[in-house]
Structure formats: C-alpha cells, structure tokens
Amino acid sequence: MTKIFAHRGSKGTHPENTLASFKEAVHVGSDGIELDVHLTKDGQLVVIHDETVDRTTNGTGEIRNLTLAKIKDLDAGSWYNATFAGEKIPTLEEVLLLLKELGFNGQLNIELKTDIIQYEGLVEKCLALQGTQTCPFAIVYSSFNPYTLVELKKIKPSQEIGLLFESKEWANKGDAILKKESYHPDLKLLDWTLDWNKNQLPLRVWTVNEDKDINRCFELQIEAIFTDYPEKALQLKENYER
Ligand code: G3P
Ligand code: CA
C-alpha cells in the first residue's frame, strides 16, 4: 500500500522543516519523512527548504553566508504561528537524533538542495554524518540535481537514491547519467511518468495534498506520496483499505 511521507515534516499543520514538524509527522504515524538540507558558511548541515532564511524565519540572508551560530539565533516558528515561537532551524544531526529518540522506523528522505547552489562538501558531510549514527530508519537521498546524485553514488554505490524531477527534460537527463532505485516526480507529471517509467521503478510522487489525488495514487498503487498533510492522508489510507 502507498506509503505516506510527511513533506518537510507535517508542513500543512506545523512550521516546515522544524523539530516540531518532524515530531508531529512521527506522532501521526507517517511512513516516511522528507526534509531539505543546505550548508552554512561554517560548513554545517542545516534543515531548511529555501536558499535564504527570509521566508521561514525572522532573519534575512543566504544560508551559505550565515554561520550556524547566527542561524541558531533565528526564530523559525513565529512566521507560521505565534504558538511555535522559539522553534529553530535544526541541524541534520538534531533531526536524526530526534527521530531516533522517537523510535521512528520508517524511511527518511534527505533532499540535497543543490539545484540552485552547488554546496561543496554537502554530499560527503551527509554521508559522514550518517556513518556516525545507527538509525532504526532507512535513508534515501534525492536531488533535483542529478550530478549531485552521481557524486553520491560514486562515494557510496549501495546508498538508495531517488531522482527528483519537475520537467520531462530533467527526468531524461537524470535518467541517462544515473543508476537510481526510484523516481520522485512532480504530481503534474504523474501520467507522463507512468508511461515513461519502462523499468517500473517505484514512484514517490510530490506534493499530493488533495483528497482526490491522494486516492488516485492509492488506486494506481504508487509506492509513496509526499504530502503536507500526513494525518489526513493516513486517514484516507485507512478508509481506502477498509
Ligand atoms: O521531495 C519532494 C519535494 O520536496 C520536492 O520539492 O520544492 O518541496 O523541495 P520541494
Ligand atoms: Ca524537498
């Protein structure tokens, strides 16, 4: 049955990519959790979607120009709702530790955000961190930049990856240069991908929020969906299974 991945945690109900959002994702029973990783000025792995802190904190500036200490001064919850005041941008290590502490044993999708900025050392640092942890959950990496995934596979051929795409052009480009275990297509390309996916690799589709789209993915027996509303999607899954 289709797995439900909480997109940036439970993004629809909590401030995205924060510990509060990941806690909620585990609390509601998500099968998987997705997050985004960037590198700070001082080379630390932080979990945030955009290249800047502007949209999701009370600060401004590019992640690559801010130290972790500066980033930790920012409030990453108030922009969403005052009840989340004091939430911080987490490091990737903090998220791994939280998920371990909560006993999460599903799949964690780490998206390497290198489609706009090529962070030198991002791949190595993620794999090195992963190597220091024994996690009860599986890790799958994805990126819109297939060259990043090629780099990752060179370092660790056994690591599971998924090719993210939002255009046919990049799906074909990535497909040509990469040995991957799954495709992560934009929902708008689902029908095209079903036809294009000749090797029948598992599909993890994003971002699936509408009831009708969620139910259609169940109907099509899609491997997984990324959704901002994991609690609702899990409820729909329970109804569908009945
Ligand atoms: O991995 C699926 C989805 O997260 C990709 O898009 O922009 O939300 O990172 P975005
Ligand atoms: Ca993402």
Describe the structure.
Strands 1, 2, 3, 4, 5, 6, 7, 8 and 9 form a nine-stranded mixed beta sheet that branches. The protein is α/β, with parallel strands linked by helices and 242 residues long. The chain has a single domain, classed as TIM Barrel. Helix 4 links the parallel strand 4 (107-112) and strand 5. It contains nine helices and nine strands. The mean pLDDT is 97. The structure holds SN-glycerol-3-phosphate and calcium ion.
Give the count of helical stretches.
9
Major sheet description: 9 strands, mixed
* Superfamily (CATH H level) name: Phosphatidylinositol (PI) phosphodiesterase
Tell me the total number of β-strands: 9
Task: Kindly estimate the percentage of residues that lie in beta strands according to DSSP.
Answer: 15-25%
CATH architecture: Alpha-Beta Barrel
**Model regions low in confidence, pLDDT < 50 over at least 5 residues:** none
Range of helix content: 25-40%
What is the number of domains?
1
Q: SSE order, as H and E?
A: EHEEHHEHEHEHEHEHEH
Overall mean pLDDT stands at 97
Rg from alpha-carbon coordinates: 17 Å
CATH topology: TIM Barrel
Q: Pairing-aware structural class of the strands and helices?
A: alpha/beta
